[in-house]
Write a structure and sequence with these properties.
By secondary structure, this protein is of the alpha/beta class. Helix 7 packs across helix 17, helix 12 runs parallel beside helix 13 and helix 16 crosses helix 17. The radius of gyration is 26 Å and the shape is elongated. The mean pLDDT is 94. Helix content is 41%, strand content 15%. The longest helix is centred in the N-terminal third of the chain and has 19 residues. A 12-stranded mixed beta sheet has the order 8-1-10-19-18-17-16-15-14-11-12-13, with helices on both faces. Strands 4-3-2-5-6-7-9 form a 7-stranded parallel beta sheet, with helices on both faces.
Length: 497
Amino acid sequence: MSASLPHSLYRSDQVRDGERKIAADLGVEMYNLMELAGLSVFDTMKERWPDAESILVCCGSGNNSGDGYVIARLALEAKMSVTLVSVADPSTVVGDALKAQQKFVAAGGLILQGILPSDNYDVVVDALFGTGLSRDLSGAYLLAVNTINALDCPKIAVDLPSGLDADTGHVWGEAVIADCTVSFVGLKQGLFTGKARDHCGDILYDGLGIGEEFAAHIPASSTLLTLSLAAELEPKRKGCVHKGHAGRVMCVGGQKGMGGAIVLSGQATLRSGAGLVAVLSDESHVPALLARQPELMTRWWHESETIETLRGVLAWADVIAIGPGLGRSAWAEKLFDTAIASGRPMVVDADALNLLADAPKHNDHWVLTPHPGEAANLLRTSVIEIERDRFSAVKELHKRYGGVVVLKGAGTIVYDGCTLSIIDAGNPGMASGGMGDVLTGVIAGCMAQMLSPSASANFGTYLHSYAADIAAQEGERGLVASDLLPFLGKNIKQMQR
């Protein structure tokens, strides 16, 4: 058992097929894995809630219910009060789950069938569904999930909360809201993004003795980008470095009256380590911008000037960050079109993404940072469809637009055409204006130093979320984007302290 999670994530079919193959190769009986899984959850329950005396175990008809029967039997043997309810007809249970059921009954266990009692329990064990759910809950199962959620006691989920899609994080109508989820053999990628964040609670992992062999032979479908992996991507500086080595970034945006967003981007670009940063905005914002951050250089361009003049301004930059506060005016369109034509590596966000949706282009040298609404606009679909399968959405965005795509949200996903990464950092306090503008600057600052759009997107997005976690130690409510700025210049080890 480990609270330190592996980096490799998998689809449910990979785990289902892979664990059978690895178990067979190692000569391990599948029922023995069921016993180990049940013991793992039981031990976790006793460790977390040592005073628990009465438990409710909720079972279905699949192998997940077999784990539940093992847990219930172990609780009986520990002299706990056990109520086990099978929402499915117990006679439909087969295979290893049937063996576990029979052992529970032989130990003196009683199986209740049908509606869950709403009595008082110390802990509820959710063993209703495994990874095979692919439709909205209904009938007795929907009632069971709602009843579990209504109970005023801790809930522990076996492998994943019932009602949650193991592959996407989509909730099939309703899902158990667990305080803790214990996942086995291979971590399911759906546990870490989208609405899963509201349902899994603390996620623990147990390889059941075959996890290392499984990881060695089954290719991961995605990667959990943790603190240790992010630290490996961090830019390193030589002792003789000067500002010219750290790159020049032009932050473009802030039409008249919308200067705050591009100021935040410029500040974040500086704080994340870029050598020189200029902000190209409406001229009216210059006094406020310089008062806020005198280290930023200022540029502006009027529509009365030539495009050639604008090209000359943009030619100064090694990297362009465009979009925050840009608007969708004729001025904004000319800035956007000229920036793209410059051929510079780019970070594209906010209004620039909406302009891109109006006139789609493919580019291998940019990083796109849409939130679900912007992603829906880029793909001409709805936010509901984006959130239904964030993995498919980020892949389709890359297919249509190229480059690296950062699909923001709970469990932000980064995709470069080869590797899917889920950011293992961030908190609800980030749901405030300006956070995306800061992210744009952070990634641009990383690109100026590291060149690789993929490494910059991955490290920059993690740095941004981790800085928000540190800032939120003083409280998530009222967290604002500028609260992140003091932490962006620290290296990972300094941030840990």
